[in-house]
Amino acid sequence: MLQLARSFGSRIAKKGFHFLPDFKLKCGLEIHTQLSTQNKLFSLSTNDPFASASLPNHHTSFFDVSLPGTQPTLNPEVVLLATKLAVALNSRINMNSRFDRKHYFYADQPMGYQITQHYSPFAKGGFLELSGSLDTIDEDFKRIELVQLQIEQDTGKSVYRGSEGRSLIDLNRSNVPLIEMVTQPNFTDLKQVRAFIKKYQNLVRHLGISTGDLETGAMRVDVNVSVNEHPRVELKNLPNTSSILSAVKYEYQRQVELIQSGETDRYSGFSETRGWTGSSTVKLRSKETTIDYRYMPDPELPSVKLSPSAVQSVAQSMPELPDAVLRGLMSEPYNLTLKDAKILAIKGNGHDQLYTQTDLLKFYLDTFNCYSELSGQRLNPKLPTNWIIHELLGNLNRLQLTLAKAAEAFPPQKFAELLMLIQDDKISKASGKLLLFHILDETNTSSLAQPVDLGALIESFDLNTIEKIDMNELKEICIGIIDEISDPKLIEGIVSGKKKNSLKFLVGQGMRMSQGRIKPYLFEQAFKDLLEVKW
Ligand SMILES: Nc1ncnc2c1ncn2[C@@H]1O[C@H](COP(=O)(O)OP(=O)(O)OP(=O)(O)O)[C@@H](O)[C@H]1O
Ligand SMILES: [Mg+2]
Ligand SMILES: [Mg+2]
User: Fold this and answer.
1) Is the dihedral of CA 243, 246, 250, 251 positive or negative?
2) Which of 34-48, 375-389, 507-521 has the lowest mean pLDDT?
3) Which site among 164, 284, 464, 498 is 20 to 30 Å from 427 CA-CA?
């Protein structure tokens, strides 16, 4: 079986992938998202499913381990976060949703059932809109409709110790709150699937309701795939976006080949659940043999009663949604590119510890406002963008400094003053970079006099020489030197960055001609500007 799957996988790899016009792909997603609440769904134990490595079975109450006689009590914070998500997704919130028991036996589910919402889920309907301008899809707009949102418990974890021939059970994750969001099967190609996952992930992060990380399992995506009007196959165990996309591609081709060879009947419509091995999908179970979960209303939990005014006040407390933030940043007065707007407004992986997206965006907007007041008519929107995205963020990473700490020593007002010094040629770009790095570095290692006195620093580092020299003279000297160079390869080497050292030669010429009046870094910057050197 596995052998067969492997040979199929290599066939696909050899043939390359493309959609065939006669075979229409249809996909629907089921996404489970762990909510970042303080406590678990039905108990007061700490919600920290990632403590497991060092502290297995640590965050567990009597209820989480299913001691007889313990009863669930709903955590209201879960309802708050679920409401935020439902509002953001334009779902119709059920003012009276209920919990049901889904029965199955598994060692990491000691109660013998999972509490979920089967008959009367938290919210129904709703949609998430993808757009060609913001989301890298081929269509101008693509609306993905949602079936429902339901609140449910996560299960514990089984840890297999193959060598010891046994399984260990860790219940830290047991009873962690989840939202299962189910879409309609509206996806017709891979770009839409990729864009939706990114967008949903960003939304839950933006609303502060989940870390949204696929790698840790905080967000888990199952994909249902069908071709033409044949039954769907459900794909599980997809640890990251590239697995999701590869699995859909593989599954599409597998199903197309089954249809082409007329084998669909023999496979009784091949409706089944399959897992992803990393290179192929393999059958986990068929839908026909699905266990009957014997859903029944949970008699120990009352229904979740909400009032329209409660939902409304949650809606009013919510931040502006990501698309609106992006569109705002891409229009007057900011005029950011989509790429830059996303850097400011959408959380990437990796910089989590240094700043939150909300703080970064606020720092940018505050700096922009201060700078715009100082610069008046001469406002250049690219200046704050470049200096915050490239210089500031670059330095925070390099120094492993948090934005909060950096902003304490160097708040938006000061940042705007620095931008003005650069704009007015009071200091060169190179000096500006030096100054910023120095300030941030000092913040990191010792206590810098606060607030930072830019004027004093410029004086002490002798960075303002640029004022005393005639910029036109500098430029003319540089043009003269470049004209004198007979070997075009030398200039080419500098521009391409292959011969960075040749720039020193030009600077040397300049120093000689200006008899040392003009500092080398000024020449360096002037040559770089003239030659439009990017490095
Ligand atoms: N013809 C189809 N092709 C592809 N996907 C489909 C098709 N019909 C339904 N789907 C998708 O299948 C999924 C059904 O999910 P749902 O949670 O309702 O049921 P389930 O998978 O049977 O149950 P469970 O939650 O136990 O996995 C949805 O994402 C839906 O979009
Ligand atoms: Mg399913
Ligand atoms: Mg489901």
Assistant:
1) positive
2) 507-521
3) 498
Instruction: Report how far ligand 2's centroid is from the alpha carbon of 117 (Å).
Output: 14
Whole-angstrom CA distances from 487 to 130, 480, 525, 531 are: 53, 14, 21, 15
Establish how many alpha carbons lie within 13 A of residue 119's alpha carbon, considering only the half-sphere containing its beta carbon.
Answer: 13
Query: Considering the domain boundaries, does residue 176 fall inside one?
Result: yes
Q: Look at residue 297 and tell me if it is in a domain.
A: no
SS3 523: helix
- Asked, for residue 304, whether it belongs to a domain, the answer is no
Ligand 1 and 269: CB distance under 6 A:
no
My answer on whether 33 and 169 are in the same domain is: yes
224 ligand 1 Cβ < 6 A = yes
Q: What is this structure's pTM?
A: 0.82
Q: How confident is the model at residue 225 (pLDDT cuts 50, 70, 90)?
A: very high
* CB atoms closer than 10 angstroms to residue 324: 11
Q: How far is the C-alpha of 130 from the C-alpha of 135, rounded, in Å? A: 6
> Looking at the 3D structure of the chain, how many domains does it have?
3
pLDDT tens digits, 171-187: 999 999 999 999 999 99
Residue 311 C-alpha to ligand 3 middle, in angstroms? 25
Q: Which of 8-22, 181-195, 232-246, 514-528 has the lowest mean pLDDT?
A: 8-22
